[in-house]
């Protein structure tokens, strides 16, 4: 009698498991079908790559859109009890000329200008490498993997709720935050040998009252010919924001603090072109 009951319980558990797996598959299919309606980002190759993240058990489920821009879209996703961000570059709307400008001066890459898809793959690889490097020195989302025009990384937030951007955060001690960012930029430049390249209050999140740096796509190593120009742009953006919040700061002094060098007029003139 016990064997019969045990057998019935096992059958019931297997049936529930099949039903659960069926629901998961249906949700995946429904989500991927919905992506086909997204204009310009989800070509068939991108859909296959996204499907590969699900089939390869890198993630269990896509949850929704965190941010959607001209060149990329970021989804939240879950695997077990961990949350991730999936950044997908829009193949049809990316500015490949600008991407090429950042890639061709990077000593880590030796890519001949050819197909747009090769350029975007190199761009994602560059962002992945920048993040991996930044992960060792400053608060930044942990880079997990990259596939063609897709980057998978840790979601910075509380569960599936992303942390606010610095521009939107409340109850911030701006004087303290400026000092934290100032020191992080110095560490990034001197220890990580990296310049963010697009730093502003939009690309800094606030988690546990600490800055977390995101979107390293335009980041360059300090050996890159554009590194000084991009660093000048970064320090100007940071100082402009904190000045509006009542913090005393000067971008030339910040540049000197980070690099140990005086800001040369020729470098500032070149920076105005970016």
Q: Keywords for this structure?
A:
Phosphorylase Kinase, domain 1; Transferase(Phosphotransferase), domain 1; 3 domains; five-stranded antiparallel sheet; two-stranded antiparallel ribbon; 8 helices; 11 strands; 18% strand
Summarize the helices and strands and which ones pair or pack.
Elements (H helix, E strand, L loop, with lengths): L1 H34 L8 H12 L5 E8 L3 E8 L2 E8 L6 H9 L11 H20 L7 E5 L2 E5 L2 E2 L2 E2 L11 H17 L3 E2 L8 E4 L2 E4 L6 E2 L5 H18 L6 H9 L5 H7 L3
Antiparallel strand pairs: 1-2, 2-3, 3-5, 4-5, 6-7, 8-11, 9-10
Helix pairs in contact: 3-4, 5-7, 6-7, 6-8
Major β-sheet annotation:
5 strands, antiparallel
Distance between the termini: 79 Å
Q: Strand order of the main beta sheet, please?
A: 1-2-3-5-4
Low-confidence stretches: none
* Second-tier CATH architecture of the largest domain: 2-Layer Sandwich
Number of helices: 8
Task: Briefly say what this structure is.
By secondary structure, the chain is of the alpha+beta class.
């Amino acid at each position: 009698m016990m064997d019969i009951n045990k057998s019935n319980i096992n059958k019931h558990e297997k049936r529930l498991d099949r039903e659960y797996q069926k629901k998961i598959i249906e949700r995946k299919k429904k989500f991927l079908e919905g992506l086909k309606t997204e204009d310009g980002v989800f070509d068939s190759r991108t859909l296959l790559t996204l499907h590969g993240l699900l089939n390869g058990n890198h993630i269990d489920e896509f949850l929704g859109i965190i941010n959607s821009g001209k060149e990329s879209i970021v989804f939240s996703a879950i695997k077990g009890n961990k949350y991730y961000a999936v950044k997908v570059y829009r193949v049809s709307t990316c500015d490949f000329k600008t991407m090429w400008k950042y890639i061709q001066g990077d000593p880590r890459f030796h890519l001949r200008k050819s197909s747009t898809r090769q350029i975007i793959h190199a761009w994602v690889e560059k962002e992945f490498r920048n993040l991996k490097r930044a992960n060792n020195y400053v608060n930044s989302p942990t880079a997990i993997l990259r596939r063609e025009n897709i980057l998978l990384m840790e979601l910075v937030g509380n569960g599936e709720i992303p942390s606010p951007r610095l521009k939107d955060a409340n109850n911030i001690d701006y004087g303290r935050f400026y000092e934290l960012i100032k020191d992080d930029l110095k560490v990034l430049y001197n220890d990580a040998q990296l310049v963010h390249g697009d730093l502003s209050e939009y690309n800094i999140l606030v988690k546990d009252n600490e800055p977390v740096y995101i979107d390293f796509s335009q980041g360059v190593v300090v050996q890159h010919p554009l590194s000084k120009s991009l660093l000048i742009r970064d320090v100007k953006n940071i100082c402009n924001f904190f000045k509006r919040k009542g913090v005393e700061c000067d971008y030339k002094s910040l540049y000197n603090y980070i690099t140990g060098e005086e800001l040369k007029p020729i470098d500032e003139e070149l920076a105005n072109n970016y």
